[in-house]
Specification:
Number of domains of chain B: 1
Number of strands of chain B: 8
CATH superfamily of chain B: Immunoglobulins
Strand order of the largest sheet of chain A: 2-8-7-4-5
Distance between the termini of chain B: 39 Å
Largest sheet of chain B: 5 strands, mixed
Helix content of chain A: 10-25%
Largest interface: A-C, 34 and 50 residues
Largest sheet of chain A: 5 strands, mixed
Strand content of chain A: 35-45%
Oligomer: heterotrimer
Structural class of chain B: mainly beta
Number of helices of chain A: 2
CATH class of chain B: Mainly Beta
Structural class of chain A: alpha+beta
Number of strands of chain A: 8
CATH architecture of chain B: Sandwich
Strand content of chain B: over 45%
CATH topology of chain B: Immunoglobulin-like
Strand order of the largest sheet of chain B: 2-8-7-4-5
Radius of gyration of chain A: 20 Å
Radius of gyration of chain B: 16 Å
Shape of chain B: elongated
Number of helices of chain B: 0
Chains: A alpha+beta (151), B mainly beta (108), C mainly alpha (286)
Order of helices and strands of chain B: EEEEEEEE
């Protein structure tokens, strides 16, 4: 690969802006352990199983202030077998809680979508509890990019 | 504009037993309590902390929100419609205000 | 193209941002259709004398999630601002006891396509005015109300509401009015002048390097057909002059004031650079 004058310019623009924008330093982040402690608390001691629940989140978020996430859980959603709640946690935010969705048989499906804040690249965790005592978990890493132009 | 205004999208009608999708959006800064103003003083937390959706008086869906939910909170969820009736939506603010909205649905 | 791609990866690595080649370069090849029915012109042939081969809306440079937010007018959070604008349109203010609607009636009719043709020449003040300044003109001269300060009060929502009435309409401005041509020249000069400690011009980033990355930001052509835009970063509507000032600040140059001659000239020129692109207001950007 030979660097033309034009590509050199790109390099210097990139580097210069990197410096100009500075690294963002936020408040202390929750650790992965804090998030897992919350998961445990929510699960009431049960060991979450994988499967049954699906968390959808972008692989890369263009801006951490508005990251769309969706969760859905396979469930008949009948009076005697339904998902009671799904909690969302983020293991790199100042605190791990994001939102808790509470469902009823009238929800018809155990699925919900919202938009969340991510302070940096981290894992988003979704945990579901069912009326029959089942606990399920899914986890996705979301990379949060830092833009070059504050604008 | 500091007005807090809910927007809700519910189909006008559904077949009995149909599961419909409901979308809601409310204008609100969701001030996280983590930010500082220009003078460096912390800006106090002020968020929508609870949302509920009822149909003909029965709870369909609710959620508890934390400061990690984005400004202008967007919520999408489903409801099983067995009869015609009225959806009631409520958003609860940290300052105690409750913003509400109602929408009717007919049976096909 | 291959060379450009390598360069962008190198630039990202240099800047210490994402080290994986997360997103490939170049605008995506997709169609923007709003609410499944309004087909938007987001790529078009440039007007005569334009330096670019094709004009491309900033929408094409955003990620799939950001793009999706603009395709549904319910999910687009910028529409909250547009609705605020509608309310203000119908609110009586000032000593004359009038609202915008008192004179202009239903904006869906009276303001249809109007926003696609601003800035316009204002003979009275002998300079071009944008929608924000036209609103202030009506407020002060016809309503006996105070002019909105930059980005304050109803300025952004009303501007967004008026521009929304041109959703899908191609942008075009009339440079034959008054002295518009000389303001266009002045704006063009600004666009190409390198300034600031970083010695960059608008063209360095938005003409020479669009499609490439600055850190993790995918550089677009810097078009303004979607303003005021809803920016995920602010979680709010952002005005054209606010965006201009932000980009100028990033070159570490002095920022001209909003609505100054400099920024009005720049708005005339940059609007022309997007001639033929649909009005997207409120566009959603990162």
């Amino acid at each position: 690969m030979t660097l033309t004058r034009r590509s050199m310019l790109t390099l210097s623009v990139g580097a210069a802006i990197g410096v100009a924008a500075g690294m963002r330093t936020g408040p202390a982040a929750a650790s992965a352990e804090d998030a897992m402690a919350k998961v445990k608390e929510f699960a009431g001691g049960a060991e979450p199983a994988t499967g049954t629940i699906t968390l959808d989140a972008p692989e890369i978020a263009e801006n951490g202030n508005t990251v769309p996430i969706s969760v859905s859980v396979d469930s008949p959603m009948t009076d005697d077998d339904y998902v009671t709640s799904v909690a969302i946690y983020a293991d790199g935010n100042p605190s791990p809680e994001v939102i808790t969705f509470n469902f009823t048989p009238l929800s018809g499906e155990a699925s919900a979508t919202t938009r969340m804040r991510l302070a940096k690249t981290q894992n988003v965790i979704a945990v579901a509890k069912t009326s029959k005592g089942g606990v399920f978990m899914d986890k996705k890493e979301v990379k949060v990019t830092i833009g070059g132009c504050g604008g | 504009m500091a007005t807090v205004k809910p927007r809700v999208k519910v189909p006008k009608s559904a077949s009995a037993g149909e599961v419909i999708t409901i979308k809601t959006l409310i204008s609100h800064p969701m001030e996280s309590g983590q930010r500082k103003d220009k003078e460096g003083n912390p800006i106090p937390r002020k968020i929508i902390n609870k949302f509920t959706c009822e149909f003909n008086g029965q709870t369909v869906f609710s959620c508890d929100l934390d400061p990690a939910v984005s400004a202008n909170p967007y919520l999408e969820f489903t409801a099983k419609v067995n009869e015609a009736g009225t959806f009631k939506f409520a958003w609860v603010d940290d300052d105690g205000s409750v913003y509400t909205h109602e929408q009717e649905i007919a049976l096909k | 193209m291959k060379k450009q791609y390598l360069v962008s990866v190198a630039a990202i690595a240099m800047a210490g941002a994402l080290s994986t080649a997360a997103v490939a370069g170049g605008p995506v090849d997709e169609k923007l259709v709003i609410d499944g029915e309004i087909e938007m012109t987001t790529r078009t042939a440039p007007p005569e004398g334009h330096p670019l081969d094709e004009l491309i809306s900033g929408w094409h440079y955003r990620t799939v999630e950001t793009r999706a937010l603009e395709t549904d007018s319910f999910e687009n959070p910028g529409m909250l601002g547009v609705e605020d604008g509608e309310q203000i349109w119908n609110t009586v203010e000032g000593t004359e006891g009038k609202s915008c609607a008192s004179c202009h009636g239903d904006a869906a009719e009276s303001m249809k396509d109007v926003g696609a043709h601003f800035p316009k020449w204002d003979a009275e003040s002998g300079r071009p005015i944008n929608i924000e300044l036209q609103i202030n003109k009506c407020r002060t001269e016809r309503m006996g109300a105070e002019a909105y300060k930059f980005d304050k009060g109803g300025q952004k929502p009303l501007t967004a509401y008026i521009k929304r009435q041109s959703l899908g309409t191609p942008v075009s401005i009339d440079l034959s009015q008054g002295d518009m041509q000389s303001w266009w020249e002045k704006g063009k000069e600004m666009y190409y002048t390198r300034t600031g400690q970083l010695n960059l011009s608008c063209a360095t980033c938005h003409e020479d390097h669009n499609g490439q990355f600055i850190r993790a930001d995918h550089l677009s052509q810097g078009q303004i057909n979607g303003f005021p835009t809803y920016r995920l970063k602010q979680g709010a509507l952002v005005s054209v002059h606010n965006r201009f000032r932000g980009c100028i600040r990033d070159t570490r140059a002095e920022m001209p004031a909003a609505f100054s001659d400099e920024l009005m000239a720049l708005e005339v020129y940059v609007t022309w650079r997007g001639t033929g692109l649909s009005v997207e207001t409120p566009a959603v950007r990162q």
